[in-house]
Amino acid sequence: PMVDELLAEAAISLAAVVALVFGCGPGAFTGVRISVGVAQGIAFGADIGVLPVSSLAALAQGCGHEQVLVAVDARMNEVYWGTYRRNREGLVELCGEECVLPPDQVRFPDGGEWAAVGSGWGLYEKELLGSCGGRISSCDPEALPHARDVALLGISAYEAGETLSPEQALPVYLRNEVAWKKTAI
Description:
- By secondary structure, this protein is an alpha/beta fold.
- The chain has helices at residues 2-10, 29-46, 55-63, 119-123, 125-132, 147-159, and strands at residues 19-25, 49-54, 67-73, 79-86, 92-94, 99-101, 114-117, 136-140.
- It has six helices and eight strands.
- The protein is globular, with a radius of gyration of 18 Å.
């Protein structure tokens, strides 16, 4: 019903949709699984492709800065970390790779001042700033990814021919283990 409502509000039919963009994570386990499951279900039903977009990239895209350090709380005293630079078209591109690690182990890129966004900056500001050498021009720990930024990045991926088949819609967790395990003493 929500999808039908959204399509009706936009005055388009599902038959007019050529591909489905979705947030693939990293993020909360349940939210990422729901996003992937809904995208797969709709894409299989409509016989269309999918375009996964990183939640970290969407967060960086939405902040509007040229160079962005994204740190999102990953629980278990870790952050999801990604560094991005805006290209000539105004879209962010990943510098290096996204990862999950303790905040005092982030790898800070070279090259001028950076904007900092994401919940990790609110929780681990001291550790992250210690790793970043004081080249932070602004910090917004309350920033969240938005659907419009997922869509912008997805459109670019579509135009680049990066559409996948629905069975290739997979969640990105960046962590091999998604729960703490108790150790017997």
